[in-house]
Design a protein that fits this description.
single chain; three-stranded parallel sheet
Length: 156
């Protein structure tokens, strides 16, 4: 057996029915060439070096569907970058809004925190609320849009 086969045997040997997932942290990329060989052995390989969010979702799908139904299934997650120590700040956040009825006004930044805690001081109007979060590792930004209407109410 060659060294590559031995390394793969060690990796697969660390998995079991109770622990079917192994994560390989390889910051220098020394073992990247082994991934196709691992896949040939019937192990699902998730390579997170590109499209991190997409591959995290793929790993979750495999875990929820295949691993839950097939006790012989195995999953290897390959990472070149370390898991951030501060899990809460894996993303950069920004909350913005603009007046839908007055496009001459600029977009206002409301917060740079994950959770919006904002006392509404906007004038009466309809606004587009935008939440954007950027993955620091992949630099992919996602946007979530909501409508916000500030109106006048009289309670009797």
């Amino acid at each position: 057996m060659d060294i590559q086969g031995h390394i793969i045997d060690v990796w697969i040997g660390k998995t079991s029915k109770e622990h079917p997932i192994i994560t390989i942290y390889d910051p220098e990329g020394k073992y990247y060439s082994l991934l196709p060989l691992v896949s040939e052995r019937g192990v699902q390989v998730i390579d997170t070096t590109r499209e991190l969010i997409h591959h995290r979702e793929a790993a979750c799908d495999y875990w929820m569907n295949e691993l839950a139904q097939n006790e012989d299934a195995r999953l290897l997650i390959y990472r070149k970058s370390a898991v951030p120590k501060d899990k809460e700040r894996v993303y950069d956040y920004i909350w913005m809004c603009y007046d839908k009825n007055d496009f001459k006004k600029s977009i206002d930044t409301l917060s740079l925190e994950k959770d919006l805690n904002y006392t509404v001081s906007l004038s009466l109007s309809s606004y587009q609320l935008i939440f954007a979060y950027r993955d620091r590792e992949t630099e992919i930004t996602r946007y979530v849009y909501s409508n916000l209407t500030k109106s006048f109410c009289v309670y009797a």
